Amino acid sequence: MQGENNRNKGPSKQSLRSLDYTNFFLADVRDGIGPELSIYLRASHHWNPADIGIAVATSTITQVIVQTPVGALIDHIRQKRLLIWIATACVIIGCLGIAFFPTFPVVIGSQILIGVAGATFLPTVAAITLGLVNRRKFDRRVGRNEAFNHGGNLLAATGAGLIGQFVARKAIFLLTAAFTVGSSIAVQGIRAREVDYERSRGAAEEGKYSSFKKLLSDRRILFFAVSIVLFQLGNSAMLTLVGQVLEQDKLLPAVDPTLYMSLCIIIAQLFMLPAAYLSGRFASGGRKRVFLVGFAAVPLRGVLFTLWNNPIYLLSIQILDGVGAGIFGVMSVLMIADLTKGTGRFNVTQGLLNACIGIGNGCSNLIAGFVANQAGYNAGFLGLVGISLGALAFFWCFVPETKEQAGGEAAVT
Question: Which domain holds residue 343?
Answer without folding.
Answer: 2-200+210-398
